Amino acid sequence: TCTSNVAASNAKLALFYDWLFFNPEKDSIMNIEPAILVMHHSMKPHPAITATLLDFICRIIPHFYPPLESHVRQGVFNSLNHIVEKRVLAPLAPLFDNPKLDKELRAMIREKFPEFCSSPSPPAEVKLEESVTMEMENHVADKDREDNCYDNSDAAFSDDEDDSNTKGKKREFRFHPIKEAVEEEPVDITPYLEQLDDALKEKVLLLQKGREEDLDTYTTDTEMQCEVMQEIVDMILEEDFDSEQLSTLASCLVELFKGHFRGEVLPEELTEESLEESVGKPLYVTFRNLCQMQEDNSSFSMLLDLLSELYQKQPKIGYHLLYYLRASKAAVGKMSLYESFAQATQLGDLHTCLMMDMKACQEDDVHLLCYLTPTIYSSFPDETLRSSELLNMIVAVIDSAQLQELMCQVLMGNLGMFRKDSVLNILIQSLDWETFEQYCTWQLFLAHNIPLELVIPILQHVKYKEHPEALSCLLLQLRKEKPTEEMVKMVMNRPCHTEDHFTTSILRQWSLRHEDTLSEHIKALLIKNNSLPRKRQSFPRKRKSLRSSSSKLAQLTLEQILEHLDNLRLCLLHTKQNFFSQTPILQALQHVQASCDEAHKMRFSDLFALAEDYEDSSKPSRSRRKAATSSPRSRKNTSQPPGNEEEESSSSASEEEDTKPKPKRKRKGSSAVGSDSD
Q1: How far apart are CA 675 and CA 639, in angstroms?
Q2: Does a structural domain hold residue 28?
Q3: Which of 44, 282, 563, 629 has its Cβ near the most Cβ atoms within 10 Å?
Q4: CB-based contacts of 523: which residues, under 8 Å, 6+ apart?
C-alpha cells in the first residue's frame, strides 16, 4: 500500500542492505534470510512484491556505488550461494524462473544470475501446466540437486548457525507457487450434482462438459454454455421449481464459472462491439434475464435469490453485475436492479454491499474500477458522494493517467465525486491518507466547480509539518481567488511559526492583485478584533454560532493579525510594493495603536511606525498628538471631536519644531497613570 517511491526504495534497501557486501565467513545467514523469504512467500498471494524485489536486486548492483560494482555483485552472489548452501530456499530456479514474473524481468534475472537459473524456459505458447512439468523434469534430472528440490516443508528462517550437513538435521522445502497449476484443475462437483433433480443435473453436466472442451472451440462452447444456462434459468422460473436447490445449484455454477472471475474483465479497446462481446459469458445470462423482468414478478425474486446464493459463495459476482449493468445495451437504465440485488443478499444494505463490491473490484481490476466509477457516482449519489471510503479506494490504486481520465470525466460532466454539503468532511478525512492519494483527491476536487470558500475551514485542521499536501494545493488555489473577509480571516487565523510561510505567501499574492480589497478586509478585522475583548459576551457568541461551520474556528486574536501583518511587512521590506501605504491599513494601525498595551506597542513598534511616518509626512498638524500616542490619556483624546484637535494643533505653529513634546509626553504619561488608577 506504500505509494511513496522514496519510502518503498528505502524499505527494499533495508531488506537487501546486508546482501551487498555479504561475507559468509563473517556475516550471519539470518541477515539475508528475510529478503529471500519475503520473495518466496509473496509469490503466490502478492506476485507484484516478489517482482519488484527481484527487479530491485538486479538494478542495485550497478547503481548502489558504481566504483564498487564488482564487490556488490560478489556480495549478492555470496548471499544467494549461501542461501542455497544453508538450504533456506533450495533451489532458487523456481523463484527466478516463475511464469508469474514478467518476461523481461526473467530475462534480466537470467542475465544477472545465470548460475541460479534453470535451463531456458519453454516457448510461450506452451500451457502453464506443461511449463511447470518441464521445469520439474529438468530439476529432477539434475542428480546433484535431486534431494534439494520440491520437498515437503515450507521455507522458513534458519534456527541457528550450525553448519552441519547431517541428513538428520536437513530441512526440506517446497516452492508452493508451482502448485498453482493444480488449482486450475476442474473441481469435482459430484457431491453437489447428487442433490439436484435429474433434469437440472443433466443441464449442469452439459455445462461441465463444455468447460472441459479444447480451447480451440472456446467460442462455440461459450455459445453452447449460454444456451444451456438459459435453459437452467427457464427451469428455475417454472412454478414447480424447488427453491431449496438454489444453494446447491449456486455451488455448481460458482465452480464451473470460476474462469470468469480470473483476469481482466474489460476488453483492451472499448467499443460497442467489444463490450457486447465481453458480456456474452454464460454467467451474465442470469443478469440479462433479470433486466428483462418486472421487479414485482415472482420470477424476479427467484433470480435474485439465485444471485444471492452465488454472491455468498463468490463475492466477485457483485462487481460483475455492476459491469453488466454498465456495459450491456440490454441493461440501459437498469442500474436500480443493483439496489434490489443488494437488498436480496445477506448484507441487506445497499451501502455495505456497494463498498464491498468496489473493494473487491479494486483488488482485482483497477481498470474496471475506473470504468465503473462515473456510473457508480451518478447512480448512487447518496451512497457515494458522502463516502470518503470509496474515494480512498479509488485514489489508492489509480495512476497518473487514470487520474487524468477521471478529471476529464468530471470536466465533461459525466462524473461528480463531491457535493457541497459533504466535501469539507471528506477533505478533512483525506488528511490522513498517503501523499499521492491526497494529491489525487485535491486534483479531483479542483476539477469540480465547487466554491473554495466551502472548504476554507479545513485550515483549522492542517498543520504545516504534517499536512504539506493540502496546504500546497490550497496555496495554489487561494492565490487565484479574490479574497473575501471570511477568506482573509481563515488565512490569518493560523498560529505563527517561523517555518510556516503559508499565510504570508497568500497575503503577499493578494496584496499584489487585490491590494484595495485586502486592505479593507484587514482594516475590518483589526478594528473588530481590537474591540472584541471588551464586547465578547454570550450574546454575540451565540449569534455567531448560527453561522457556517467556519464559526467553529478558534477565535482570531488581535495578536495573530499583527504577527501576520508584521511578517508581511518584512516580506515586502525590500520591494517597491506600497501595500502598507494604503489608507485603510494606516487607519486601522492607528486605531489599534491608540488602544493596545505597551507590550504590543514595543513588540510591533516597526509596524506601528508605518502609520506614524505616514502621518508625519502627510498631516504635520497631527504630529504632536502622534508623538504622545504612547500615553493612555492621549489615546483617550483620539476619540474627541475633530474640532478639539484643530484647537490644540493651532495653538502655536512653532511648537511643531521645538523639543517640548518629549517632556510633555512624560507629564501626560504620569498623569494618565493616576487617571487609570482612579
Answers
A1: 16
A2: yes
A3: 282
A4: 584, 585, 587, 588
> What is the rounded distance in angstroms from the CA atom of residue 532 to the CA atom of residue 592?
12
For residue 155, the model assigns a pLDDT of 52
Residue-level pLDDT at 470: 93
Using alpha carbons, list the distances in angstroms from residue 368 to 1, 324, 358, 395: 19, 11, 10, 14
Residue ranges of E strands in 133-265: none
Residue 306: name the closest of 337, 262, 344 by CA. 344
Average confidence (pLDDT) per 10 residues, the chain, 678 residues: 76 91 89 89 85 91 90 91 83 83 86 78 41 41 39 47 41 38 55 80 80 49 84 84 84 85 84 89 89 79 90 91 91 89 89 93 92 94 93 93 95 93 94 93 94 91 90 92 91 89 92 91 88 45 40 72 91 84 88 85 86 56 42 40 42 41 40 40
Q: Are residues 446 and 316 in the same domain?
A: no
CB contact burial 166-180 (16+ within 10 A = b; e otherwise):
eeeeeeebebebbeb
Task: Give the structural domain span for 598.
Answer: 482-532+555-614
Please name the residues in contact with 239: beta carbons below 8 A apart, sequence gap of 6 or more. none
The three cell numbers locating residue 305: 435469490
> What does the alpha-carbon distance between residue 569 and residue 582 come to, in Å, rounded to a whole number?
13
What is the predicted pLDDT for the residue at 214?
42
The answer to whether residue 253 sits within a structural domain is yes
- Integer CA distances (angstroms), 227 to 220, 231, 256, 277, 503, in order: 11, 6, 15, 15, 68
In this prediction, residue 319 carries a pLDDT of 93
Q: What angle do CA 263, 266, 267 make, to 5 degrees?
A: 100
Say yes or no: 198 and 322 in one domain.
Answer: yes
Do the domain assignments include residue 78? yes
User: What pLDDT is recorded for position 147?
Assistant: 39
What does residue 16 show for φ and ψ, rounded to 5 degrees? -105, 0
Looking at the structure of the chain, the number of domains it has is 4
Task: Let me know whether 381 and 444 are in one domain.
Answer: no
- Where helices occur in 17-98 by DSSP H, the ranges are 33-42, 47-63, 69-85, 93-96
559 and 610 in one domain? Answer: yes
Q: Are residues 368 and 400 in the same domain?
A: no
Give the Cβ contact number of residue 284 at 10 Å: 24
User: Is residue 422 situated within a structural domain?
Assistant: yes
Q: Show Cβ contacts of residue 600 under 8 Å, excluding neighbours closer than 6 positions.
A: 558, 559, 562
> CA 219, CA 206: separation in Å to the nearest integer?
16
Among 466, 490, 511, identify where a domain stops. 466
Q: Alpha-carbon distance 444 to 423, whole Å? A: 11
Long-range CB pairs of 92-96, under 8 A, 24+ apart, other chains included: 92/116, 92/117, 93/117, 93/118, 93/135, 93/139, 94/135, 94/139, 94/149, 94/175, 94/177, 94/178, 95/39, 95/40, 95/43, 95/50, 95/175, 96/54
pLDDT tens for residues 383-412? 999 999 999 999 999 999 999 999 999 999
Taking CA atoms, 422 is separated from 165, 374, 454, 547, in Å, by 66, 18, 10, 17
Instruction: For residues 456 and 513, state if they share a domain.
Output: no
pTM of this structure: 0.63
